[in-house]
Amino acid sequence: MTIYYSLTFLLLAAEMITFCLLVAPLPYALKKRLFTFLSESPIVAKIAYGLKISFIFVTILFADALQRMFRVTAESDLARSGKQGVIQDIRTDTNLAAKKFYAQRNTYLTGFCLFLSLVLTRTFYIILDLIHTQEEYAKLKKTAASNGSQSEEITQLKKQLEEAKKVERDFAILKQQAKQNNDEYNRLATELNDLSGNKSNKRVD
Q: Membrane-spanning regions, if any (predicted)?
């Protein structure tokens, strides 16, 4: 295996380890710190930028390995069909089988590396969105609890206001009754003075 395919294999192994860490059942506080660090750290951003460049080279390797696999497969089919005067012997078959195996191996290696990079990126952002959603839910729950306590206070104040209005209505009715009784008393006093012939200008206020 050449050095660039060896580096691709190391990159694939690193992606597999990273994927296992992402989907591991970590505590919420630890997971929140980890993903916050990964999403906000400038060092991680630089590493991600370097990985993007490396994936461009992996894409080129994938295209080359795919083209080579098709070419080796075609040569193997031609050799088996006996065309182009190819001598059928064990050495030739072994050589063609080895070329086909290496071509397929390189294709699968680079292809899985690219595919896992997409899976990792999508998984990371899904978990990050989930953490943000859980934070928003916690805030809304806290706000709802605070609004619940405030609504209880508002209910008590409304109840006290209704009682105060009721007392005010009772007081107004009592005041009206007192005024009516006072007017009736003055009227009766005036009639009594008229009947007794002793008019009095004294009125009860």
A: 7-27, 47-66, 108-128
Q: Are 120 and 18 in contact (CB under 8 A)?
A: yes
In tens digits, what is the pLDDT along the chain, a chain of 205 residues? Answer: 688 888 888 998 998 998 888 888 888 888 888 888 888 888 988 888 888 898 999 999 999 989 988 888 887 777 777 654 445 567 777 787 888 888 888 899 999 999 999 998 898 888 888 888 888 888 888 877 776 666 777 777 788 878 877 877 776 777 777 677 777 767 777 777 777 765 444 444 4
CA angle 147, 152, 155 (to 5 degrees): 120
Cα gap 88→14, rounded to integer Å = 43
- A 10 A CB-CB count for 12 gives 19
Residue 126 has, within 13 A of its CA and on its CB side, a CA count of: 9
Return the amino acid letter for 146: S
Domains of the chain, residue spans = 3-155
Gap between the Cα atoms of 112 and 120, Å rounded = 12
Burial label, 31 (beta-carbon count in 10 A; 0-12, 13-18, 19+)? middle
Q: Locate 175 and state its tokens.
A: 């005041």
CA-to-CA separations, 151 to 103, 147, 157, 164, in angstroms, rounded: 71, 6, 10, 20
Distance (Å, whole) CA 123 – CA 95? 41
CA-angle at 161, arms to 160 and 164, nearest 5° = 85
